[in-house]
Amino acid sequence: MADSKEVVFITGANTGIGAGLARAFHARGATVIASGRNREGLEALASDCRGMEIELLDVCDTAAIGACADRLSARHPDLNLVINNAGVQRLLSFAGGQPLAAAELDAELDTNLRGLIQVTNAFLPQLLRQPRARLVQVSSALAFVPLVAAPIYSATKAAVHAFTIALREQLKHSSVQVVELIPPAVKTELHRGQTRRQIDQMSLGEFTAKAMQGLDSGEDEIAVGLAKAARRFSRLMPQRLLKVVNRGGS
Description:
Layout: E1 7-10, H1 16-27, E2 31-36, H2 39-48, E3 53-56, H3 62-75, E4 81-84, H4 102-128, E5 133-138, H5 151-170, E6 176-182, H6 204-217, E7 221-223, H7 226-236, H8 238-245
Parallel strand pairs: 1-2, 1-4, 2-3, 4-5, 5-6, 6-7
């Protein structure tokens, strides 16, 4: 579904996968509204991509999401593609004998799952008004096999996978295609500061190119790179896959 007339709203676009997708859509002539929590990152992106719009948005703020949806509905009544990409990953252990701080747990729950659901809820009415539209939910290979060191992140991505399947079924007779984009480990700031050994990471450029090919193919589920193996072998040999993904230590 390559279409230069697409009007694209992307969350978490100030860095990483979100920024890569924003640049790719902009390069082929789509109208792109990049959103995120970091103004400096968004402004740097927009300065490189002439004409790209930015929206300062924290997906943990439900009221701000609703206000953003209202603004964009008025400014871009033809908005037809929303990419729910915002996400954070923290390495947490519940084995320390003391409760973890609630804020440590909420950071991932609110950004990765609650925020995604709230953005979906706020923007779906506009997407449903279009003759053809897409909602893209970015999950992870860890939706199929958890990274033991990142239990909340893995759980939220598994929930995104389940939510996407249910939403696709609810909207199957509508004009909105619900797509799940499933990245492998990608070399981005998501893993910044983590000292554990990482499994092989795909470059952002390679991932973006493959993701765009998948999005253009019209598929409902787009698993890129090692995410394809995670999706397949999570059913065939889950314990073996769990060991492979976590071989760097938990």
